[in-house]
Amino acid sequence: MGASELSNLTLHLEGSLTSALGQYLDNWRRNMTAASSTLDKTLADENFKNVISYLAVMIGMFAFVVVAMLVSTVKSKRREHSNDPYHQYIKEDWTAQLQQDDVITNFGAG
Predict the structure, then answer these.
(1) What is the pLDDT of residues 40-70, one digit of tens each?
(2) Using CA atoms, how far apart are residues 39 and 30, in angstroms rounded to an integer?
(3) 99, 105 contact by CB (below 8 A)
(4) What is the enclosing helix (H) or strand (E) of 104?
(5) Is 0.70 surpassed by the pTM of this model?
(6) Which of 40, 53, 100, 109 shows the smallest number of beta carbons within 10 Å?
């Protein structure tokens, strides 16, 4: 084998490998593009199919929790009357404390 034959063989192999690799990459790109477009189409169809119902359910649950908290707070405030024993205890405790402070203040002033 001479140098020219070896050179021709190298060029031939290079051309063959370049052609085979180019065809492979072109086919791969076409397959990826087709798969990508199919996936994009599927996502576009399915992405917003149930979003409105999902949002309605989530907002409804949130509203239910908020209303339940507000109602329980209002009911608990309604139960706090001046006749409530706990309320009377606090009122009497504060009244006694204020009277004691008045006695101490009057004692210090006199």
Answers:
(1) 777 776 667 678 888 999 999 999 999 999 9
(2) 14
(3) no
(4) helix 85-109
(5) no
(6) 109
* Six token digits for residue 101: 């402070």
Instruction: Summarize pLDDT for 13-46 with one digit per residue, the tens.
Output: 888 888 888 888 888 887 778 778 877 777 776 6
Check: CB of residue 87 under 8 Å from CB of residue 81.
yes
- The Cα-based distances of 4 to 7, 9, 58 in angstroms read 5, 9, 77
The amino acid at residue 40 is D
Neighbour-count burial for 17-35, b at 16+ CB within 10 Å, e otherwise: eeeeeeeeeeeeeeeeeee
Q: Which two tokens stand for residue 32?
A: 């990826």
The two structure tokens encoding residue 36: 């990508």
Complete DSSP assignment for 21-56: HHHHHHHHHHHHHHHHHHHHHHHHHHHTSSHHHHHH
Amino acid in the structure at residue 102: D
Measured CA to CA, the distance from residue 27 to residue 48 in angstroms comes to: 32
